[in-house]
Amino acid sequence: MNNKPLLWVLGGGAFAFVAVVSYWIFALTLANQMKSDLLPPDKAAAYIHAVIEASRTVYTEHVVGKLHQAGLAEAIEHWRDENGVPLPAQFLLESGRLVSQKNLKLSFRLASLLPTYAWNGPTTDFERKGLDAVGKDPSKPVGGFVRIDGGRYYQAIYPDRAVTQSCVTCHNQHPNSLRRDYKIGDVMGGIIITIPIDLP
Ligand code: HEC
């Protein structure tokens, strides 16, 4: 009996099976490797947050602090119309405004559930829940994927705490303040960072 055709079929089948399995393993390995090559969005947000925080601290300590000590100028809210320089909160908000004017779809701002001005309040349910969560547990930021105007974004909300007495005094005394019992260490709001994740 001639078994040659059967052998060919069996051999071909075995070869195809091995080829499919090898391709599958190769594809999985490649996908895994590519995954670890990408920067996770929560890490990207952590990098951006570190830069924002560092420039705000440098501005507060080395610019506002020094101008005050030298009696040269004060950080005041109405710095555009009066003789003074922006408050650290306004420095951050202004930088955020400049960044959002670039075509990067990246944005960041200071916000609170009890904002001095309504424009610093949460704009979505995710922001409201995130600000609430960092207010209750400031040990870590809150993050998640959101959709804004059809685009996919990663949003991270970092707690913003009253680190000095001046945060407490100014916010408790501000005519617009919705809360007047802040103490040092309290979470006063959060820094919301929004990063686009589906780039063209
Ligand atoms: C001299 C007054 C003053 C000081 C000091 C000050 N802030 Fe503010 N803060 C403001 C004003 C005014 C705004 C609103 C700015 C705007 O939207 O133009 C604001 C905004 C904020 C917001 C956004 C939510 C809101 O209330 O509108 C947070 C959060 C915040 N400040 C936290 C802090 C922290 C933390 C400190 C200390 C490190 C601090 N602030 C120091 C006056 C002050």
Give structural notes.
The chain starts with a helix and ends with a strand. Helix 2 crosses helix 3 (88-101). The model has no long low-confidence stretch (mean pLDDT 94). It has helices at 4-37, 41-69, 88-101, 125-136, 165-173; strands at residues 107-111, 142-148, 151-161, 187-196. The chain is an alpha+beta fold and 200 residues long. 20% of the residues are buried. Strand 2 and strand 3 form a beta hairpin. It folds into two domains: 1-38; 39-196, 2-Layer Sandwich (Beta-Lactamase), CATH 3.30.450. The structure holds heme C. The site of heme C has 23 residues, from helix 3, strand 1, helix 5 and strand 4. Heme C binds at residues 77, 87, 89-90, 93, 110-112, 115-117, 120, 160, 162-164, 166-167, 170-171, 174, 188-189.
Order of helices and strands: HHHEHEEHE
Whole-number total of structural domains: 2
Q: Which fold name fills CATH's third level, the topology of the largest domain?
A: Beta-Lactamase
Query: What is Rg?
Result: 27 Å
Give the overall pLDDT as a whole number. 94
Report strand order across the widest sheet.
Answer: 1-4-3-2
Determine the fraction of residues in helical runs and give it as a percent range.
40-55%
Distance between the amino and carboxyl termini = 63 Å
- Ligand types: heme C
The CATH architecture term of the largest domain is: 2-Layer Sandwich
